[in-house]
């Protein structure tokens, strides 16, 4: 639930400039800034309370794309959350980015076009003209570790910034169960059929405004891959010892791949 109290000097502030976030540069840990450290450079900014973690309060704000970073701070791509230390810092940045994008995309009512206002009690936006209330969008998506005995299926995206080998993933469509999405996505992207689909764990993923639902599944039939070239650049089977290393342990993809590597 949001807290509308005014931001204080010891509150954490997540400042976003397009797809970048402002971070400390003087240390490798605890890089999220406090409002008291940067307030002088952002006097015209109106931070919005995002959430409270324990006794620590987090605010978010967006600034113009030509806003300079103050001394001892730098703008870095939002994907830096994958490698922030301690890892919880990255998790909280991931959540803050999700909320920031949602607020930016819902400044106006989708029903009548009037400006929206913060709900007085809930984390929501309301339209004073027609009464519509909207809550943060969370898009369900699956990610699946497809195995063929002692081999794991990994693929490279054809588009976007992330081009490392990873697991197949996709959004749940209207009317589908998550398990049906697993079957459809694997068949569409690599032409394979799967069985013994099993839910493993989930993870919020702010980059895509989604909740990633992690599954394992076994190959059912031929292992011959028929690549969907519009989505994937490459896909192939990897043995445990050949699974590529990852520079981040923060993603559910890493956790599912590591689970297979360890024979779990």
What does this structure look like?
There is one protein chain. This protein has 264 residues and is α+β, with helices and mostly antiparallel strands. It has 3 domains: 12-105, no CATH class; 108-137; 139-261, Nucleoside Triphosphate Pyrophosphohydrolase, CATH 3.90.79.10. Helix content is 17%, strand content 33%. It contains 4 helices and 14 strands. The strands form 3 sheets. Strands 9, 10, 11, 12, 13 and 14 form a 6-stranded mixed β-sheet that branches. A 5-stranded mixed β-sheet has the order 3-4-1-2-5, with helices on one face. Strands 6-7-8 form a 3-stranded antiparallel β-sheet, with no helix packed on it. A hairpin with a 2-residue loop joins strand 1 (12-17) and strand 2. The mean pLDDT is 93.
Give the topology, please.
Elements: E1 12-17, E2 20-24, H1 35-38, E3 48-53, E4 56-62, E5 73-77, H2 87-105, E6 116-118, E7 125-127, E8 133-134, E9 139-148, E10 151-157, E11 168-171, H3 178-190, E12 194-205, E13 210-219, E14 232-239, H4 252-261
Parallel strand pairs: 1-4, 9-13
Antiparallel strand pairs: 1-2, 2-5, 3-4, 6-7, 7-8, 9-10, 9-11, 10-14, 12-13
């Amino acid at each position: 639930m949001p807290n509308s109290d005014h931001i204080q000097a010891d509150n954490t502030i997540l400042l976003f400039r397009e797809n970048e976030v402002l971070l400390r540069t003087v240390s490798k840990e605890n890089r999220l800034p406090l409002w008291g450290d940067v307030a002088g450079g952002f006097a015209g900014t109106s931070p919005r309370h995002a959430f409270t973690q324990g006794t620590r309060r987090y605010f978010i704000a967006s600034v113009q794309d030509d806003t300079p970073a103050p001394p001892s701070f730098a703008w870095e791509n939002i994907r830096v959350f994958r490698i922030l230390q301690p890892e919880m810092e990255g998790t909280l940045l991931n959540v803050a980015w999700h909320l920031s994008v949602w607020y930016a995309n819902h400044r106006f009512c989708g029903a009548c076009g009037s400006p929206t206002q913060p709900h007085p009690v809930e984390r929501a936006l309301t339209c004073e003209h027609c009464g519509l209330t909207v809550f943060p969008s969370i898009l369900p998506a699956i990610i699946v570790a497809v195995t063929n005995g002692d081999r794991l299926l990994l693929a490279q995206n054809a588009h976007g910034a992330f081009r490392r080998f990873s697991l197949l993933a996709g959004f749940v469509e209207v009317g589908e169960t998550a398990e049906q999405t697993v079957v459809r996505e694997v068949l569409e992207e690599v032409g394979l059929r799967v069985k013994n689909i099993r839910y493993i764990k989930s993870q919020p993923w702010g980059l895509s405004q989604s909740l990633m639902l992690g599954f394992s599944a076994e190959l059912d039939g031929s292992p011959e891959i028929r690549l969907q070239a519009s989505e994937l650049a490459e896909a192939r089977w990897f043995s445990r010892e050949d699974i590529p290393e990852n520079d981040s342990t923060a993603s559910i993809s890493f956790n599912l791949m590591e689970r297979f590597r360890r024979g779990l």
